[in-house]
Amino acid sequence: MSRLLIQEHPVMIIPSLAVKLGVNEAVVLQQMHYWVMKSTHIKDGRKWVYNTYSQWHEQLPFWSESTLRRTINSLEKKGLVMSAMFNQSRMDQTKWYTLDYEKLEELAGEDQDGHLPAPDGIVTEPVRAPEQASLTKPIPEITTKTTTEKIHIPFSEVVEYLNAKTGSAYKPNTRRTRELIRARWNEGFTLQDMKKVIDLKTAEWLHDSDWRKYLRPETLFGTKFESYLNQKPATKVLWEEEFNFDD
Q1: Where does the Phage conserved hypothetical protein C-terminal domain start and stop, copy by copy (predicted)?
Q2: Which has the least CB within 10 A, 73, 211, 225, 246?
């Protein structure tokens, strides 16, 4: 039998994904998905996997490292792959990767049936369970008392309330905004808590030309969220000139 025929674990993708993204991007996305599903490293409610470009090259040796670098950068620009540095040492520049499964769902929704066909895909090892093969199935969200009931995170309600109070036009599907709201939600804060912070800071900052620019998701729902939530409402000082004693 020829050594050029399949006698080792193949790299497989589904055609519809390759049509949407290109062959290179589809292969790398499937590869990352496989390892993300096996990962036990969880940050901000997501599973992450780390690899150097050299290590990715060992798994996909038919491309050069420069091709892999360009392909991964392309997926990052499309918003399908997210990267971060979680290493304690600044000397360690290993990048961590995860997939934006919500963005992938939007991509899948462009099909008539609303889903990409379930891939048979494996990468350098065989798939061991059906859920590892689906690129359209996101990593489970934090659940309620039962393990099957998903918590609804009110991204749209929060952002629409912020826009209504401040006259802004933030989008609820922006990746960074969703990450911030999800982080606060996972800490146990509620929709009412988020509305309260918006109310408090709007009352304090909206009419101040220097501070109104901070009425934005990255400030309101960032690391100072709990401090904002527990601050006392500003009390208005009434001046004598505000009253008409002749009435």
Answers
A1: 158-230
A2: 246
